[in-house]
What does this fold into?
Amino acid sequence: MPPFEPPESLLTGFKERVEALSLQGGRLYVGTANGNLSVYSVIETAGTDGKSYTITHLETKKSLARKAIDQLGFVKDTNSLVVLSPPKESQVTLFDLPGLTKPTPLPKAKSAFSFAVHTSLQHLYPDGKKTRPQGAEFSSPIIPVPTAITYLVVGCQRKLVVYSWKDGEAQELKEAPLPHSARTIVFLNPDVVCLAYEADHVLFSLDTMSTIEITSTSIASKPATSIGSVGKGAFTGLGGYMTLGLGAKLRPCITNVGDDEALVAKDNEGLFVGIDGKPSRKAHIPWPAPPEDVSFVKPYIFSVLPAGSVPIATVGDTGSAASQLTFYSGPVLQIHSSISLRISQSLPFPFPNSPQPTSPPAYPVNHTLRLLSPSPSSKSPLFLVSTPTDRATAAAEGSTIWCFRMKPWGEQVDELIDAGAYAEALALVNSIDAAVLPDKDSRTSLIKALDAVSQFRAGEFDRALDLFVELNINPTNVISLYPETISGRLSVPREQWIQMFGGPEPKPAQEATSARPSGQAPAPAGGGLVSKLKNPLDAIRPSGPKDPETVSIGSKKDKPRIDDFSRSVESLLRYLPDRRQKLLGALEAFHITPAQSHRHVALSDMSSDSLRGIPDAPFSSLTPEQLVQCAQVVDTALFKSYLVVRPGLLGPLCRRDNWCEVAEVEETLAAREKFPELIDLYNVRKMHSKALELLRKLGEKESDVKDRLGPSITYLQRLSPEYLDTVFQYSRWIFDENPRMALEIFTSEEGELPPQHVINFLESLNPRHCARYLEFIIKDRHDESPIYHDRLAKLFLKMTLDAKQVGDEDGCKWAYGKFLLFVEDSTHYLVDRLLGMLPSDDLFEARAILLGRLGRHDSALELYVYRLHDYDKAERYCKQLYQTDTETRNIFLILLRIYLRPLVKTTEDLLRPALDLIARHGPRLDSEETLQLLPPLVSAHDVRIFLAGALRIPRFDTRVVRGIAEARGDQVARKLMYLEANRVKITDSRICPQCHKRIGPSAIVVHAPGGEVTHYHCREAFGKKLKDIRQS
It folds into this structure.
């Protein structure tokens, strides 16, 4: 998976030695060792084989510098080309573009060894600083202003000169002394640069104008191995050219590898340094020899390794002895990923499409390679110059400028995905700007999903499922990774997992080992022998004991995992409840609850492809149908997971509303005899017919009637009116077994079924069942609705008439007794309607009661007397109705009148019950009317008790006393009149019999009854005298 296209020879046969390159505004500036500057136009064209560059020579500025042009750069603020010449007479000069006129020497930048240019957009406050001014209130409207800042940092003789521009305006020049001269300079960020001395490296802060020491840490446990320490014979086949360039003093190699990080080549190791001077990574890049040059094209690190330092590894090479290794005779360009630090591409020189010399030399010619990347922003393309080391060949053939074009980002990502390098692909995508990769978000999600699948395959179940949750992966796809015991028909073979999550189709083994693409070294990128060695020079070292780390890894791979399935299910039990809660919340927004699961399409009726087609998105963005499908998949998988590893949790899950697909688990539950859980599941999913059928089958195995019928009765009691037909259907066999227990289905307080439907159903089974149910409604529930009272009365009447019709005396007696008792006790039925249903020649007692309800007491009593001849019931009837000061106060008199004044002909002697009625209830009868009703031949002796009682009646006694008083008054009045009519003659000679004196004209008193006359004052004494005489 090489990330770069095969190198393209942009310019060949360039006779001068190239020292510097720079590409700006479609123009390529080539600086030579003679001080000349050649200018070429570079135009990108699109051909049948892809994009390519067309180069055209524009001009050559002879002797632009007195000696070699070591480095070229570009200052955007002044639109100038920066030119650096060699030491001593070296000076940094600015040339206006595009004409390269008006050279502007930088006087302070003399004796320069290197420079670096960096332009960035920074947000500065009015005081020119990046931080908010101290003391400023946060409420004050101080807003940082975007400012374009350019730095030109020049490394001179033991000092550093800093030129800067802000929005095109030159700023004050700064200088700082250094202990050594900076041979190479790279920016880590807009404020920190890395300086490479001849033998050391430091960081320099442009803000504080001070150095930052780099912490030296031993990264490799083994000392660096130079070429000179290689055993004899290790470089066979290289001829006499292997030492060309190796003994030369190399320029320090450092390069920026991203934000706040630089790569420092120290011996044969590449160390990563952060802006704090500390190693930014624990890992490092091991090279077989110190690189001759390094460069960076985001996110790849280019390094030129000297000839004879890189061993050739063939496909299938498992490690050969050092004496059998061969090495590339020319320099090798290695391309590492700055993300994974793996070798992404290895290109030995000459490249496959190198131009052929006009006259082949008599011996192999070596070349030097220099990475002269013109792009300060670390972007593609990168330019490389190859020059023969032999002077004659160099003069004849000249140098070649190569162009390295990066493959499209999408293609690189796809290749990494095809190779299964998901972590590296993800890091690569994260490093790419969304403007360059429009589908960055979708690719990121895809790679994360594939990486999660890879982790799942490797046994990292928790991490994989956490990623699935983070990415909102369709739960169906996640569950499909499990075997059929968990996922059922959704299970997908292991080799199809990647494809299911949107990855590439698995390639056949032959296709995977097919020929390498052009531009790739014989050893596959990152593979072969080199990839197995911690340092490529390990291949030529004597064999020794194995690395303990390698031994540890090997032992872990060989050791089989213990119970991966159980671990994966335990992880799933952490994933599924989380998804379940989120789904329930999303469904509630649509007012959909698990209690409505029976109203939706069953999971078994949907295809696996349609379930996997649910988009990977937050649940809040799914449709209600998709949410229901996800909920069904999740709950079914949760159920099966509990069944496998936690059977004790099945019960609570079954008893709660859920979306589990019953068809996929009922057989398993039945096989394991988990009937209570299965019944609960049926109940929750509203599959009551299946539950009741199962209860009936289980009940058939029980001998005790309660154990046989009780569970079915309890289940039926809990059903709502929505399942009334089911209740009726499965209660029939219970009524056949035990009607008394079966009636509890409808009399329970748990479920309120519509009474009218229940009444009709029970009446169709047996009227007695219906009567008991109606009695329960009326008596136990105290329902006074005329509907039920009237229905029960009619039912008793119907049962009575039916029993009479078939000659069932016991049934008739029971039903008629119930009917009489009910119509006598209840007052909430329709009397007239019920009266009209009675036969005219039968059921007279019932008719009498109903007539009494209508207030027709005389007709009721006539039925008791004339039809039933039951005088006791007639008398009890009167007792029930009699109340003083009401309309029924004469009820006994009505009965007596019926006895003594019959309206129909009868042979019964009604005098005796009439006399008995008078004797027992005389006080309740009107005496006068009673006496008037008595026949003339009735003696006083027959009614003596009545008469005695009548005389003791307060009303009657008052009348007698009043009559006697009136007679006495009349008597006294008559006697007074008589006495007043008598005359007494008083003469002068009449003597008072008391005092014996003459009465004379004095007041007198006439004493009764003899008529004696005394003085008035003698009356008392004479009256006492008369009283004594009478008493004696």
